């Protein structure tokens, strides 16, 4: 025969249930369990990292067509950063490879923090399609494009074909060698001691005189020229053996 509990004992049990449940929830985790307490500043730090990623992406995109960015979280947690302004400590440096990024905080920007990031940009650079001898004028058929991680190239490596075409090789380049600005120079259109034609023009007049170049120069360079009366003036190189002066 089933035993019937007294009514007072049933009510006592029901009243104790909420207290027992709350106590169970308040118990610390058992040994071997791990919890991830919510960090009240984590969202602020995450948004700051996203802002740095966006900043680096915009600065790296002109260098190539495939940009990958990894921003390394700081070893110590950053407090809140109001009115964050991201900047590059070296504005003239290419944002490729391992870079340091600064963040100014506050309305006055006096609080400055720094983050490290790895920026990988894939694109094409120019490679000699054949051996190129010193003095040769560069044409499109002398070069090929090669896809690489641009951050691994020397700073003066060329990626723009139009910037190379028409330039003159200063030294020999082997087939397969990366093209650098150090390898090229502007072709000399005027040589020192060369007889040149100087065209002077101004409002309502244009005259042409013959003279002797005292310097060598390429297109757009300014050189000295000496005339038959021994006068010396400066003129701009406008073409092969041709100088111009504008008044």
Architecture overview:
By secondary structure, this protein is α+β, with helices and mostly antiparallel strands. The chain folds into three domains: 78 residues, no CATH class; 64 residues, Alpha-Beta Complex (Type Iii Antifreeze Protein Isoform Hplc 12); 52 residues, SH3 type barrels (Roll). The strands form three sheets. Strands 1, 2, 3, 4 and 5 form a five-stranded antiparallel sheet that branches. The chain has a five-stranded mixed β-barrel with strand order 8-9-10-11-12. The longest helix is centred in the first third of the chain and has 20 residues. The protein is elongated. The N terminus is likely disordered.
Set down the secondary structure blueprint.
Blueprint lengths: L6 H20 L15 H19 L5 E7 L12 E3 L9 E9 L5 E18 L14 E7 L11 H4 L3 E2 L14 E2 L9 E8 L2 E9 L8 E6 L4 E8 L2 E5 L1
Parallel strand pairs: 8-12
Antiparallel strand pairs: 1-4, 2-3, 3-4, 4-5, 6-7, 8-9, 9-10, 10-11, 11-12
């Amino acid at each position: 025969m089933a035993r019937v509990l007294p009514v007072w004992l049933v009510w006592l049990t029901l009243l104790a249930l909420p207290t027992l449940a709350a106590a169970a929830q308040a118990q610390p985790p058992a040994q071997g369990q791990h919890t991830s307490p919510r960090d009240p500043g984590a969202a602020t730090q995450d948004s700051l990292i996203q802002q740095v990623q966006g900043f680096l992406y915009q600065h790296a995109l002109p260098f190539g067509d495939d940009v990958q960015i990894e921003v390394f979280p700081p070893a110590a947690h950053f407090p809140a950063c109001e009115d964050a302004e991201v900047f590059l400590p070296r504005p003239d440096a290419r944002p490729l490879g391992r870079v340091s990024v600064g963040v100014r905080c506050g309305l006055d920007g006096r609080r400055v923090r720094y983050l490290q990031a790895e920026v990988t940009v894939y694109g094409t650079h120019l490679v000699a399609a054949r051996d190129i001898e010193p003095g040769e004028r560069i044409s499109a058929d002398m070069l090929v494009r090669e896809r690489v991680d641009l951050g691994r190239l020397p700073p003066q490596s060329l990626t723009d074909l139009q910037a190379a075409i028409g330039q003159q090789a200063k030294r020999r380049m082997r087939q397969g060698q990366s093209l650098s600005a150090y390898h090229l120079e502007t072709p000399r259109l005027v040589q020192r001691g060369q007889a040149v034609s100087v065209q002077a023009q101004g409002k309502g007049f244009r005259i042409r005189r013959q003279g002797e170049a005292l310097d060598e120069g390429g297109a757009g360079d300014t050189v000295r020229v000496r005339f038959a009366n021994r006068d010396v003036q400066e003129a701009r190189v406008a073409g092969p053996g041709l100088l111009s002066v504008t008044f």
